[in-house]
Amino acid sequence: MLKEFKAFALRGNVIDLAVGVIIGAAFGKIISSLVSDIIMPPISMLLGGVDFTNMFIVLSGGSYATLADAQAAGAVTINYGLFLIALLDFIIVAIVLFLLLRPINKLTTKPQPPAAPTKECPYCCSTVPEKATRCPNCTSELK
What we know:
Elements: H1 2-9, H2 12-46, E1 57-58, H3 67-72, E2 77-78, H4 80-108, E3 118-120, E4 127-129
Antiparallel strand pairs: 1-2, 3-4
Helix pairs in contact: 2-4
């Protein structure tokens, strides 16, 4: 069993996947910092100084100035501001991945060869290759 596990763990696909996950996690942290430290402050300023991290709804009653105060008091909250930030993170990651993978997909996608010319069998109306002399469906002789 140990030998099988070693063979599995050292296969190229598993190692590539592990490297991809680690790089993806680091990339996610960079994007989160980009959103929260660079993109959200100007958006907040344009919207009149709105602090997205303190946008929340208290479900358990009471009024709190900040999300940290509400959480320290043990209040149940819906943190829609943090959700908006996470949503923006996701959108930016999706756009960046799209922009990175689009040229790669164009390079790896092989053009499809043109379809062989066809004709219709006059007896059964099925499509057959143009050079066919007999219909493969109804076995009629074609002209």
